[in-house]
Structures are given as C-alpha cells and as structure tokens.
Amino acid sequence: MNERTIRVLEYEKIKEILKKHATSRLGKEFVEELVPIKEYNEAKHRLMETTEAVSLIIQKGSVPIGPIYDVERYMKIAEIGSYLYPGQLLEVGDTLRTARILKNFIKTTESEDFSPLQSLVSNISTYKNIEERIDQAIISEDELSDNASPTLRNIRRQIENKNTAVRNKLNSMINSSRMQKVLQDAIITIRQDRFVVPVKAENKKDVPGLVHDQSSSGATLFIEPMAIVEMNNELKELRLKEKAEIEKILREISSQLGEVSENIKINQEILAKIDFIFAKAKLSISMKGIEPQLNNNGYIRIKNGRHPLIKADEVVPTNIWLGDKFNTLVITGPNTGGKTVTLKTLGLMVLMTQSGLHIPADYGTEISIFNTIYADIGDEQSIEQSLSTFSSHMTNIVEILKNVSDKDLVILDELGSGTDPTEGAALAMAILTHLYDKGVKTVATTHYSELKQFALAKEGIENASVEFDVETLSPTYRLLIGIPGKSNALEISRRLGLSEEIINKSREFITSEDIEFEEIISTIENNRKTAEEERDEAIKLRLQVQKLKEDYEEKYKRLQQQKNREIKTAKEEARKILKESKEKADEIIKELRNISKDVGRERNKRIEELRKKMKGSIEDLHEPVNFDEDISVSEPPKSLNIGDTVKVLNINQKGEVLTQPNQNGELTVQVGIMKINVNLSNVRLIKERKTSDKNTNIGNIMKTKTQNIKKEIDLRGQTLEEASIELDKYLDDAYLAKLEQVIIIHGKGTGALRKGIKNFLRGHAHVKAFREGIYGEGGSGVTIVDLK
C-alpha cells in the first residue's frame, strides 16, 4: 500500500487505538505489523474473525485473556537440558493456563458460526498436569513450596529443627552470667550463613570459637562458639541438600516442558493472534462498527459512515457511493464544509476494511478491495525542495498517474488549486478524463465551477456537494451526491451586510450563462430540501400510525389474556363446586342406604337431618356471585389521593397510589414489589377497612418487645453458630422495639467469636453501623451496634 496514503489518511492513528485494546505485548506486535491487504479471500477471512470475536463478546461477556508471555527463549533453555528459574516457570505456567482457559471458553460455545476461532483454538495444546505441577511447586519468583517434593519438605523440617536447636543452645549461653560480661549485646546474629554472638574484642579469649566478622569500629567480634560449630556445619549441609533438591525439582519441571516445547511455541503464536483478533473486536464495539459487505468489482457504498477519529458526539455521518453508475465523483463546496473529512472518511474506511477491521457505518455498507489507494490530500509544500503548494501536489499526481491502474482508488483534494484558475480548471478536467478513461475509481474535490459543468456533461462523472446553510452561514457537513455545489458568495455577502448596490454591480460582471447555471442549482437545492421535508413528515406520520397500531394490538392482547384468565378461573371454580357437590351427594346416598337399618322415630329423625343438609347444599350452589362491596365496577374514580388503595383491572391486582393522575390520566401504582404506570380508566377505587391492632396481635407483640427487650446481650461461652442464631433473633426483637443502640458482650478470649460476630453484623439488614467498645464500655470485649 502507498506509504503517503497511509500517512495522510492517518491509518497509523487507528493502529494506535487498536493497540490499546490488545492485552499482551505479543498481541501489540501483531497490531504493529498490520497492513491493508489486496487479497479478497484473506480480507474476507480477517473480517469474519473480527465479526465472530464481536459475537462471542456480546454472547458471553468479557473474554478471559490472562497473561501471555514470550516463552520462546525459555523453551530453548528447556530443550538443551538446562533448567528454568522459578519466576520463568511461573510465566510459562500462566501462559499455559491462559491457553487452556481460552480454548475452553471458545470451544464451549454452541454456535457453529465461530469456525475461524474454533479452528485456531483446535491447534492449542493443553498441559494441565504441568500447570498444576508448577502451581504446586512454586510460590513466588524466588521461592519453592514445601509441597514441591516430600524430600524437600523433610529437609526443610530438619533445617527448622536444627535452627531451633542452635538458637536454644546459644540462648542458654548468652543468658548465663559469665557470658553476659563478655558479650557486647545479648543477641544472636548471622554471619556468612552461620549463627554467631557479638563479643567484646578484649574478651575474645573468654569465648573459644571461630571469628567470622568484626564491627567497623573493631570493638565487636562476631564469634561462632565452638559448642555450636558442629551444629552449624550440620545446618550448612542441610542447606546444601535443600539447594540440590530445589535444583532437581526445577530440572524435572523444565524437562517436562522441554518435551513439549514445540507445542508451547505454537500455543504462544496462537494466543498472540487471538489477543489481536479480540482487540479488533473490542475496537469494533467501542466505535459501534459493522462488518461491511465485500466485493472485488470496485463498487463502494457507505451508509452513514462516521470518521473513526472524530468524537462520536461531534461527527456527522456521510453517505457515499461510487463505481456503479459513475466511476468519478467531483465534490464542490465552500471551505471548512467537510470535503476533506469526506475524502479521509472514504479512504480510511477502505484501508480499515482491507485490514480486516470493522468500520463505523450502518449495515448495508459495501466496500471493494483495491490493489492500491492513492491519496493527494493537504498542503504538502516543501521548503527544502523549494516547491510551491501547486508544484508539490503536481509532483505527487504525476507519480500517481505513472503507476495507477483500473484496480486502484484515487483520492484528490483541491485538484488544480494553487495556480491560475483557468489553467487549473483545464488541468483538473484533463486529469479526471485521463483517470476516467483508464477505468480508475476517483473522488476529487475542487473549487472550480468549470468542473461542475464538466461533470454534468461527461457521462460516468457525477457531481456532489457539501451542504451549506445560508441562514446560519455554516456548513452542515452533509454530502449531496447528484447536486453540484453552489458558490453562495453573493448571498453570504448580503447576509454579512454588503450593500445591495455592490451586489447588483457584481452581477454585471458575471455572464448570463453563469447566472442561469447558479439559478438552476439553487432551484434544484430548494426542490431537494422541500422533498426531504415532505419525506421526513411522511416518515413521522407513518411512525405515529405504527405506534398507535402497536399500542392497540398490545391492549387487545392484554384484554384477551385477561379474558382467558377469568374464563380459566371460572372453570376451575365450577369444577371445584361440582366436585364438592358430588362428594356431598355420595355421602347423603350412603347415609340413606344405612337408614333402612333404623326403625321408627329414629329413622324419621335421620331423614329430616339429611333433607336439611341437602337443602343447604342446593342453596350454596345457587348463591349469587358477590362483587367486592368496596369497589366500583361501573366507572373510574373521579379523583385519587396518594396512598389510596385501587384495583388495577387489566391484571386483577390491588395496589397503592404513588402519584396523582396527570392531565392524560396517567398515574403510578405500587403493586407488590412492582411500580407500574396505568391510566385512570384502568383502575377502581377500593374503600378498604383498616385492620386495627385489636384484631391482630401485632400491637401486643410490639408492646411486649418494647417492655422486655434489654439493651445488651451476653454471648460469652457460646460457639459462633450458637451465638449467630441467638444474635439474629435479638437484633430482630431490638429492631421491633425501636432501640437505636445495643451492646453485644462477647469477651476477649482468642478473638474468634469477636471476629465472627463482626462478620455477621456486616451483612445484617437491621445494622446501620458498629464499633468496638471504648474504655468504660468494655473495651475490645464488647461491640456497640447502631440500628437502622
């Protein structure tokens, strides 16, 4: 790809943003090597990778990309039979773990759409046994665990015991009255990995042993007493054994890695590429990008494309198409109108697409693959080469014309500027004609009005312009294809206060053909604006109708659901009544059969009882349906107050009014734990009778709790489980009694009960805050709790 194009289109800035989304140094290296490619299939494959990674992030959330280290050098060390240090093994272990977790993460997706990523992770080799061995053996970058091997554990236990024995021996020596007279300090220290004691230099003969060091002043000698020399020798031997065992363990793990080193190198390369792919996906999500449709025939259609380097709240989307009915697009318009941004947006989106990156545009965008993109944008004046702006541009254009082919895209900014307008316009038309005849896709911007007429007359070349609002004297940055740009110079001058006399005088110097041409453009522009306004109004009305239709269908659906629920409830009630009636009838029949065994008065009495029972059952069946006496079913309430209880008809539930109805009759009702918005026509007022404390025991319970609850609870001597149960009940009672502060007595002891109680209090619903007692309150033996 042309290096100048890469620079002027600011492609490197996109790569810098992409690099920030990579998590590893190896992934960032992939970004640094990224360049646009011209192979269609490869570009398509790269875009698919990005799309699949985006889908995976959306489906499953953040990707578990852990540490990825460059372990290739470590593998070479393992291959030659040497051993790796603990810190190096930790990096290898982290990389192996990342490979295994990523492989499981991508393989567990049920969709078959992730084939490129699936193909990548299928080549990852996992070695959980080596991971676990490294985790088991190594604690930090310079320390092995006692669990690395039974031998190491045994050696370290012996070292610990020997250390204790040496210290005990020395302690007995330095605490003796004889030794205290000759010691500088009654302490034990270490010199050259051996235990020594600090002896006054003048008392050297009183402590037989080996001198290992002396103080800077020479007043103190650090002597290893003869009594512990042998013990120190044994300790030294144990430390040598420990070092040998550590080296043995490191060699064993390194040997395992050396056997699979080639696979681990492959893992590293795959992990770096996966990191790079997910970096592309994160970039796409951050700029709301999409995968453009790809073609190889030079056709471009960008729908609402947004320049990725302009802030989202400032960028104006643009629509560009090229390569179908015309191959050359000539954009005219005033300065600062957005022509250059439009060119850069087009060029950068083609570069991003050919790099496998998503672009910030709408679905339906289609981008072609080009062999090379040539761009001549900006002021390239060179002081060193003594070239003017025109000369600099022409030098670049000459180079483009030498190498361009029909498979390339050419972007030219301010074509022909910097020289005499007549010659510049003629030169611009000649260059555009040359590029058109070669079949090159070209987009150019210009100020020359001659090029507007040229584009109108030349088949295959199309006009475009950037819209300018004369009312506000500012550009809208919208690209209008098919409409040549209008100069607006006279109109802008009038609005800025230039007299009508001067404006009319200036018109005399303009040819009638130019005036007619500008008037035609103005008429086209006005007709376009009118058509757009009418289109927008039609869309607005259509959306309103669609919204009304959806609201009606939703209400109808709710009514049908309510109707079905009521029918279902009625059927269930009828089934229940029939079942009860059948059971009663069966019972009566059974009783009648047993009456035949009775005689006389007793039988008549039993028959009368059964007759009354049957009559009662029949009356129950004919009992009319009673509606709630407290609800009006005829009409909505005329007024509602906050706190009133209402019934919401469409869900057949009671609720409490939270807001008064607005001018449209909309209000908010609390139904259970939900807050719902309803219309006044959909509620009925319920005059509920308040349940007094006389009908419930709540008042009595509250009174009892308030009278009997103490402001402190003693949990000493209890287990944490017993204390937690008792404390939970006590806090509930204290909360009901409206106590503001209570004291928990747990004692000091080992501190286990105190710690457990504090952990319990942190998650309790009634606890506002708690603290340890101060002097006079019980100190650390109590905890003071503030209740909500």
UniProtKB/TrEMBL annotation:
Gene Ontology biological process terms, A to Z: mismatch repair; negative regulation of DNA recombination; rescue of stalled ribosome
UniProt-recorded name of the protein: Endonuclease MutS2
Coiled coil: 521-598
Family under the similarity heading: Belongs to the DNA mismatch repair MutS family. MutS2 subfamily.
Assigned EC number: 3.1.-.-, 3.6.4.-
Keyword ATP-binding appears in the UniProt entry: yes
Lineage start: Bacteria, Bacillati, Bacillota, Clostridia, Peptostreptococcales
Encoding gene (name): mutS2
Subunit: Homodimer. Binds to stalled ribosomes, contacting rRNA.
Smr domain residues: 713-788
Function field: Endonuclease that is involved in the suppression of homologous recombination and thus may have a key role in the control of bacterial genetic diversity.
Domain of life: Bacteria
Species for this entry: Maledivibacter halophilus
CDD domains listed in its UniProt record: ABC_MutS2 (cd03280), ATP-synt_Fo_b (cd06503)
GO molecular function: ATP binding; ATP hydrolysis activity; ATP-dependent DNA damage sensor activity; endonuclease activity; mismatched DNA binding; ribosomal large subunit binding; rRNA binding
Keyword entries, A-Z: ATP-binding, Coiled coil, DNA-binding, Endonuclease, Hydrolase, Nuclease, Nucleotide-binding, RNA-binding, rRNA-binding
A Pfam short name: Smr
Xref: SMART domains: MUTSac, MUTSd, SMR
Chain residues that bind ATP: 333-340
